[in-house]
Amino acid sequence: MTTTLTGKNQITLPAALAQQYGLKAGTRIEWLPGAEPGEFRGRIVPEPATVAAGLRGAGRKHLRPGSHPLTRLLAERASEDSERKAAL
After folding, report:
1. Is residue 42 within 8 Å of residue 31, measured between CB atoms?
2. Whether the Cβ atoms of residue 32 and residue 47 lie closer than 8 Å to each other
3. What is the model's pTM?
4. Sign of CA dihedral 63, 65, 69, 73
5. What's the distance, CA 86 to chain centroid?
6. Residues whose CB is less than 8 angstroms from the CB of residue 86 and which lie 6 or more positions away in sequence, other chains included
7. Which residues contact 12 (CB under 8 A, 6 or more apart)?
8. 73: Cβ–Cβ under 8 A, 6 or more apart, which residues?
């Protein structure tokens, strides 16, 4: 498969590759140097939502038993608000 670089530094990805990797309009590709001179490779950049979904719940193993992060956060904010009001 051969493609041509346009005057605006754009290329058209062959349809066979797009179908093989499930690429569609808006898919981001990161270009990286290859192992040989004059060679490069493309890496599909995952969608931010996909990355976030993979991290969901990852920090739970670090919680202390019986603690709840939201309750602690709300208490910290209330304390900061009290300190700001006292400074006025």
Report:
1. yes
2. no
3. 0.50
4. negative
5. 41
6. none
7. 3
8. none
